[in-house]
Amino acid sequence: MATAAVSFPSAQWFEHLAARMNEQRAKYQNFGFVTARAVFRIVGVPGGNRNFGLVFDGFECLEIRELADSEIAPFDPDWTLEGDYATWKEMVRNIKAHGEADPDHTLNRLCLLGHPFKVHGADQTRVDVFYRQLFSFQAFIDESAAVETSFA
Amino acid sequence: MASSPKRLPPPFALPPTRRHKPLPLPPPEEVKARLYDHPEAQRIRSGQLGEWFTTPLSGGEWTEWGRHAKPDRIGMTFMAINRVSANPEPTNEPARRLMHSRYIKTHRMIPPELEEKIAPKYGTAREMDRRDQVWIEHAAELTEEALDRQLRPARQLRWEDMAPIPPELERAFDQFATYVIQALYLCSDASGPWNGLIHYGFAEVKSYLAYELFDYNLMAGLLRKRVMANGGGMGVQIDSLGAGLIEVCNESSHGFVGEVERDFAAVVYAVDVLFNSLLLAMARLGQAGARCRFDRQVMTQLIQDCARHVSFGCRRMSFYLRNCPDREEAAVKLHLTADRLEPMQTEHHLLNPQVLEPLAILLGGGANAAAQGMSMLREFWPQIAADYLARLDSIGLSRRDRCLIPARAPF
Question: Which end of chain A is more exposed for a tag (fewer CB within 10 A), N or C?
Answer without folding.
Answer: N
